[in-house]
């Protein structure tokens, strides 16, 4: 009997997250899709679980839904995140609290719950969506809070990859450049494109291909896959 594999995807209502949902469905996975604004899907194998993933109760509900409906969790894609571009001295306490809650809290609670299931299964995969600005800062895009918080979810990949390698659970990260999503106004696209050595912004498909590569590479763990048009290579 074939096992119905299950992917949990956060930040799934639009942009990269919505693209990742489609990609995992095309691979035959059932999907638990979370975001604050997610709506029910016509696809019986896409289960929407609305709520703020930084809330531990929501994180619990997301994983419980996967287990109740399908009995397992095979992949978790931690895509939910916020990016607040301000000079460091302009950040407020509210900015800090919000970035900490979503970018770190939104990773921590759901990942603990998912990995507990994966560890018991002796198989699983966690992918964190970060940003190349963590390693390649750019004066045109002030990003200290992103570096502080998304940088944490990047750094923890190697630690968890080693901790859980013997239990069959892999951890990887996709580090995108600036991606053409609804978050970026069209009038800014030319400026953002010029920040990449390849001379264009990334697309949602570019990031999705990176996630799926890692999904289908069973001997890859603890890896940072840069999908950034050469940003991290230099300028």
UniProtKB/TrEMBL annotation:
Cross-referenced SUPFAM superfamilies: NAD(P)-binding Rossmann-fold domains
One Pfam family here: adh_short_C2
InterPro entries: NAD(P)-bd_dom_sf, SDR_fam
Superkingdom: Bacteria
The family this protein is said to belong to: Belongs to the short-chain dehydrogenases/reductases (SDR) family.
Designated name of the protein: NAD(P)-dependent dehydrogenase (Short-subunit alcohol dehydrogenase family)
């Amino acid at each position: 009997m074939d096992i119905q594999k299950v992917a949990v995807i956060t930040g799934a209502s639009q942009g990269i997250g919505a693209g990742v949902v489609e990609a995992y469905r095309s691979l035959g996975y059932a999907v638990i899709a979370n975001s604050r604004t997610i709506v029910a899907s016509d696809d019986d194998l896409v289960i929407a679980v609305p709520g703020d993933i930084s809330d531990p109760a929501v994180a619990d509900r997301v994983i419980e839904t996967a287990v109740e409906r399908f009995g397992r969790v095979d992949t978790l894609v931690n895509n939910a995140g916020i990016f607040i571009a301000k000079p460091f001295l302009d950040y407020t306490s509210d900015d800090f609290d919000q970035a900490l809650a979503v970018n770190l809290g939104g990773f921590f609670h759901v990942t603990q719950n998912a990995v507990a299931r994966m560890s018991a299964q002796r198989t699983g995969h966690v992918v964190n969506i970060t940003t190349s600005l963590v390693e390649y800062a750019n004066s045109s895009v002030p990003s200290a809070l992103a570096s502080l918080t998304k940088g944490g979810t990047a750094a923890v990949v190697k630690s968890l990859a080693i901790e859980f390698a013997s239990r069959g659970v892999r951890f990887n990260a996709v580090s995108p450049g600036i991606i053409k999503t609804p978050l970026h106004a069209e009038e800014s696209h030319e400026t953002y494109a010029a920040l990449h050595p390849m001379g264009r912004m990334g697309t949602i498909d570019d990031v999705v291909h990176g996630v799926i590569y890692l999904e289908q590479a069973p001997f890859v763990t603890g890896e940072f896959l840069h999908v950034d048009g050469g940003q991290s290579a230099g300028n």
